[in-house]
Specification:
The chain is of the alpha/beta class. It contains 11 helices and 8 strands.
């Protein structure tokens, strides 16, 4: 009985101590909220933290640092510190396009880039890049070449998508991702998986890869962590006073900058967890390994993303090519009719 009372008294004492520490943390947060940008930057430099970013970002960073420091000094574990995946793979596809695209335009992936981030080292440790030969529209539009910086020669010399996807999956296997090492895919928004990868698998008439079923939408993470609206990549970088390095709409450069943003968010204490999953209307490629990583397990925080495709867009290559030929035949017939009409009217 005495032992039980002592244990209860000890637990109450620890609870009281925790309450006191968290009240002190709230006072610290109030103090941080009252600081101007110059004071925030000065305090961050003092604690060897990054002093760049908007006022809201600086406050978030300083609060997170001071909270962790206060809890550590009181020997209290921080229950809201999120567990990170050991690795993140950042994807950012580039696809065929025109300056104005009709609703049923078949976007074909022409650049398949990926950047591997090690969260223990907080650095980029490898990257994958391959160009892809388009089949339906093999000639890139001038707009597409200008936008992406991809040349006609690069795609002409490339392999078609199924072969490139196989190369990428071998790259994942080389790093033991999904077997020995847990990882999560990261994109800027839902479009890379929900539109480009999904649509390309339909066009190529191949199973949708298992790695693309669930992923981290970093735009959503950024909005939730820094309490702002959802921003495109350049505006997210601007908010943290980070420079875009490279050529915008070069897939590898975009993926690299998204990776830099990811690393900064991890340093600021953001939770980088699965928050998107795709609801498939198409066949799914089963995992090649039985112990598939946690990125592909059930996660209550993830939300379904319906593939961003209409029924007219869910076509295989052969179907799309037939549609293209049918449209060309119709146009030829129309031109012939107009020409005959003109000749008859003239006579």
């Amino acid at each position: 009985m005495e032992d039980k009372e002592q244990e209860t008294s000890k637990q109450n004492g620890e609870s009281d101590k925790t309450d006191i520490v968290y009240r002190e943390i709230q006072c610290i947060f109030g103090w941080v909220d009252g600081l101007d940008k110059a004071s925030l930057m000065r305090n961050l430099k003092k604690h060897n933290q990054n002093p760049s970013g908007s006022v809201d970002c600086l406050k978030k960073r300083l609060k997170n640092y001071l909270k962790k420091k206060k809890l550590a000094s009181a020997n209290i574990s921080c229950s809201d510190i999120k567990t990170l995946f050991p690795y993140y793979v950042v994807l950012d596809f580039e696809a065929t396009c025109n300056e104005v695209n009709p609703a049923d335009f078949p976007h074909e992936i022409i650049e398949f880039p990926a950047v591997l981030v090690n969260t223990e080292k907080l650095s980029i440790v490898d990257h994958f890049q391959a160009f892809v030969k388009p089949v339906i529209n093999p000639q890139l539009s001038p707009f597409c070449k200008t936008l992406t910086g991809i040349t006609q020669e690069q795609v002409d010399a490339a392999s078609e998508f199924p072969a490139v996807l196989d190369q990428f999956e071998r790259w994942l296997a080389k790093h033991k991702l999904g077997t020995k090492n847990k990882y999560a895919m990261v994109t800027d928004g839902p479009w890379d998986m929900g539109r480009f990868l999904y649509g390309q698998c339909i066009l190529s008439d191949i199973p949708y890869p298992y790695f693309g079923k669930k992923w981290v939408n970093l735009r959503k993470c950024f909005s939730g962590f820094y309490k702002c609206e959802r921003l495109r990549l350049q505006l997210m970088l601007d908010k943290l006073e980070m420079e875009f390095v490279g050529h915008p709409h070069c897939g590898l450069d975009d993926a690299t900058n998204i990776a830099h943003l990811l690393i900064r968010m991890i340093k600021d204490g953001a939770a980088i967890d699965i928050n998107e999953r795709i609801t498939l209307r198409y066949k799914l490629d089963p995992p090649t390994h039985t112990n598939e990583n946690a990125a592909n397990t059930s996660n209550k925080s993830s939300w379904p993303v319906k593939p961003l495709y209409t029924d007219s867009q869910t076509r295989t290559y052969s179907q799309a090519l037939r549609d293209k030929q049918r449209a060309a035949d119709t146009m030829s017939s129309l031109k012939a009719d107009l020409q005959r009409h003109h000749i008859q009217a003239s006579s």
